[in-house]
UniProtKB/TrEMBL annotation:
Keywords from the named record: ATP-binding, Hydrolase, Membrane, Nucleotide-binding, Transmembrane, Transmembrane helix
Similarity field: Belongs to the GDA1/CD39 NTPase family.
Annotated active site: 163
Pfam families in the cross-refs: GDA1_CD39
Organism: Syphacia muris
Annotated protein name in UniProt: Nucleoside-diphosphatase mig-23
InterPro entries associated with the record: GDA1_CD39_NTPase
TM regions (residue ranges): 472-490
Amino acids binding ATP: 198-202
GO MF: ATP binding; GDP phosphatase activity; ribonucleoside triphosphate phosphatase activity; UDP phosphatase activity
């Protein structure tokens, strides 16, 4: 009986080996990638992992989670652009990010994990010589402080429109709007996006097939790893440097100062009644010419929106009318943004939700009602009752009246979105994932990995199929031998 049990065990082990499919296990072989969003106010590191199944599908990419199921993200301040006068300190500045992330990358993957550092609006505002000095320091010294895969070409300042393209890719990927239909007629409808940062604002959306002729604001994007039409999209995308909320406030302050001092012919001790701040909030402002003036809040949100609309259109190009152009500068496509499912990121979320609690589907009447109520409060009352706004810092509360008016003015006066009939919504998380353009950047720049991995998996598949066939033959052989031996044993 022991002889029979031992032979049966051998046969079962062989059978288990035959059933085991190493190819399915190999498909769970994740690759890792690090990307840093070097923005105007700080730098944020994100860690992603991905796998590819075939060259006909997009890579399957997700944020890496820590032990508490939170995405591996780390932010440092100030922005990379603040090292314009001290470029030799740039690598030391970002070193804590790499010290942090290395523990989340499996040891066997470290040297194969690519690093991307993409600088945005803050760096774009610097002279090219200052940009190059900062980038050179990082490209030269980063390989000395991290074992991750550092390629100089992946450390650069990106154009604003690519920031918009990456955001467009990210939101549509998370929403599942990319599919494999070879005919554009059968494709899922993609959504548009508007991303309001501190220094700039970007918009991106898919063009109709007949809509052409937008020069630098047109981009054909292929998300696939081959030159077919599976994942090829025609986009209108542009960025407006100087129209983010922080740069917008500078424009507004210049407008205030010059409008008042021109009328008074006096630049000394100027105190300006400001509709874009809560009542009696006082702020000292220094101009570019080192003169000063004082903003004193009057809390009139409607007047603030009207004034900001004038600020936006003051710099309009002569050949552009408000109806035909975005922000009075760029020829708008035939398709109205009011008809597009449009998602707003960053300040569109924070300025609508942190204080007003109106993030999500946009309703102008609701926003206007709550914004008016907040702005007409006295500043001392807001500070006294700040516990009513648990998600807002004092800095946010000071700027909330202006920021909520600015994003509304840009949306309606700048992008011509209808006040009532629109499909705009502000978002922070979609499908449980925070929307970051970094996801879109990784998806785009890693798009050729399926070719590499499909070849690798093809070779493995052939090897495993051969091994499987061989194991099957051996299994049959062993079963026959076992039966023969068993019969022989019984006969004896």
């Amino acid at each position: 009986m022991q002889w029979l049990e031992s032979k049966t065990t051998v046969i079962l082990n062989i059978y288990v080996c035959f059933l085991y499919n190493p190819l399915e296990y190999d498909l769970l072989d994740w690759s890792y990638g690090v990307i840093i969003d070097a923005g105007s106010t700080g730098s944020r590191l994100f860690l992603y992992r991905w796998k590819s199944i075939s060259e006909s599908k997009l890579i399957d990419i997700h944020p890496v989670l820590d032990g508490n199921d939170n995405p591996v993200v780390k932010k440092i301040k100030p922005g990379l652009s603040s090292f314009a006068d001290a470029p030799l300190n740039a690598t030391d500045y970002i070193k804590p990010l790499f010290d942090y992330v290395i523990k989340y990358v499996p040891q066997s993957k470290v040297i194969y994990t690519p690093v991307f550092i993409f600088a945005t609006a803050g760096m774009r505002l610097l002279p090219e010589s200052a940009q190059n000095a900062i980038l050179k320091n990082i490209r030269t010294n980063l390989p000395l402080i991290t074992p991750l895969q550092v390629i100089p070409e992946n450390i650069r300042v990106i154009q604003g429109k690519w920031e918009g393209i990456y955001s467009w890719i990210a939101i549509n990927y998370i929403l599942g709007r990319f599919n494999e239909n070879k005919s554009e007629v059968n494709r899922s409808v993609t959504v548009g996006m508007a991303d309001m940062g501190g220094a700039s604002v970007q918009i991106a959306f898919e063009l109709e097939e007949s809509d052409t002729g937008y020069g630098n604001n047109y981009e054909e994007v292929n998300l696939g790893c081959s030159n077919n039409n599976l994942y090829r999209y025609r986009l209108f995308v542009t960025t407006f440097l100087g129209y983010g909320v922080n740069e917008g406030q500078r424009k507004y302050e210049d407008y205030l100062y010059h409008s008042v001092t021109t009328a008074q012919n006096d630049t000394s001790a100027v105190i300006i009644k400001d509709p874009c701040m809560p009542v009696n909030l006082v702020q000292l402002v220094e101009n570019a010419n080192t003169s000063y003036f004082v903003r004193r809040g009057s809390g009139d949100w409607d007047k603030c929106v009207l004034t900001l609309s004038q600020v936006i259109n003051t710099s309009a190009e002569t050949e552009c009318s408000r109806e035909l152009c975005f922000l009075g500068k760029v020829l708008a496509p035939k398709r109205s943004l009011s008809t597009i499912e449009l998602y707003g990121f960053s300040e569109y979320w924070f300025s609508l939700d942190n204080v007003l609690s109106l993030g999500g589907p946009y309703n102008f009447s609701a926003v206007a009602t709550k914004a008016r109520r907040f702005c007409r409060q006295k500043w001392n009352s807001i500070r006294t009752h700040r516990m009513l706004y648990p998600r807002a810092s004092e800095e946010r509360l000071r700027a909330q009246c202006f920021k909520s008016a600015w994003i509304v003015a840009v949306l309606h006066s700048g992008f011509n979105v209808d006040y009532e009939n629109n499909h705009f919504r502000s978002v922070l998380n979609v499908e449980g994932q925070e929307i970051q353009w970094t996801l879109g950047a990784m998806l785009y720049h890693l798009r050729y990995f399926p070719l590499r991995d499909s070849q690798r998996n093809l070779l493995k598949g052939r090897r495993h199929r051969f091994n499987g066939d061989t194991k099957g033959s051996y299994l049959i052989l062993f079963v026959i031998i076992a039966i023969v031996l068993l019969l022989t044993k019984v006969r004896r």
